[in-house]
Amino acid sequence: MPSLLDADVLTRLGPDGADRFARDGYLALPGLLTGEGLAVLGREATGLEAVARRRDFAMACMDDSPRHMTTLGGHVIGRASTLIPALYRDRSLMGLVREVAGEPVIEVDDPVERHVLNILHRAGDTHGAHTDDHPYALVLFLEAPDDPADGGLVRYLPRAASLRTLDSGRARTAHHRAGDAYLLRSDTTAHRVTPLVRPGLRRTVLNFAYTTPVARPHRTPSATELYE
Predict the structure, then answer these.
(1) What is the CATH number of the domain that holds 177?
(2) Phi, psi for 227 (deg, rounded to 5)
(3) 80 vs 49: CA distance, rounded Å
(4) Residue 3 resides in a domain
(5) Does residue 4 belong to any structural domain of this protein?
(6) Residue by residue, what is the 3-state secondary structure of 8-42?
(7) How confident is the model at residue 11 (pLDDT cuts 50, 70, 90)?
(8) Is 120 in contact with 126 (CB distance < 8 Å)?
(9) Number of neighbours of residue 40 by Cβ within 10 angstroms
(10) Going along the chain, which residue ranges are E strands?
(11) Would the pTM count as exceeding 0.85?
(12) Nearest to residue 180, comparing CAs of 64, 31, 9?
C-alpha cells in the first residue's frame, strides 16, 4: 500500500491526546493523510461517487434531523474498492485509534457501516444531528471548504443528554481541511455537520467505524436509511 498515513501524528499530538479525547469525546488529527494518501484516496472517492446515491430526507429516529447529502455504504465500497477496506484494517491506523481511545478496538461486523463515503456538494447540504451505533468514528477528510465561514464544520457535544443540546452554548465547532482527520466517541457524542453555504463547495469524507470486544452497539435504523 502507498504511504497514505503520516506516522508522526501521534508525536505531534503530545502525551495528553488520550486525555483530551476522554474529556471531549473528540480529537483532531491534523494532517493524518500524506499528500500521496490524499491524492490516491481522492481518486478512489471520485470513482466511487459515480455509484453513490443522493439522499434528501428527515431522519425520524434522530429527532427528524435533516440529511441532504450523497452517500455510499460499506457493502458497496467493499465490492468496488480494495484500497479503502485495506486502509480500514491497517494495523498502524487501528493502533492510532487504540492509543487515543485507551482501549482495544476491532472492526465492526456490519459491512454497511464499516466504512462509508459521505459527500456534501450542494448549497445547503448537511448531515444532521445524530449519534452513531458504534463507539468510535474516524473521519478522514478528502475535500473540505478552506474557509470555516463556508460551512461543513463538525458541531459536537460529548455525553449529550439529547440531540437538541447541539443548539446550546456548550456545543463546540471544529473546522478541518483536506488531509485532516478526527476521532469521535460517536455513540455518546451528539454531532452534526453544518450546511454548506453556497454552490461550488464540497466536503467529502470517509467515515471508519470501530468498536471494542465488549461493546454492545445501540442499533438504530439510521445506517439502513442512509446507506442502503
Answers:
(1) 2.60.120.620
(2) -125, -10
(3) 11
(4) no
(5) no
(6) CHHHHHCCCHHHHHHHHCEEEECCCECHHHHHHHH
(7) confident
(8) yes
(9) 18
(10) 26-29, 53-59, 65-72, 106-107, 115-120, 126-130, 136-143, 154-157, 172-174, 181-185, 190-193, 203-211
(11) yes
(12) 31
Q: How far apart are CA 131 and CA 26, in angstroms?
A: 13
Residues near 27 by beta carbon (within 8 Å), at least 6 away in sequence: 13, 17, 20, 21, 100, 182, 183
Q: State which amino acid sits at residue 80.
A: A
If one counts the domains in the chain, the total is: 1
CB atoms near residue 174 (< 10 Å): 15
Q: What is the pLDDT of residues 41-95, one digit of tens each?
A: 999 999 999 999 999 999 999 999 999 999 999 999 999 999 999 999 999 999 9
**CA-to-CA distance for 45 and 71, rounded, in angstroms?**
11
Secondary structure letter of residue 177 according to DSSP: -
Q: What percent of the chain has pLDDT over 70?
A: 99
Residue 26: inside a domain: yes
Domain membership of residue 223 as a residue range: 9-212+219-227
Q: Is there a domain that residue 2 lies in?
A: no
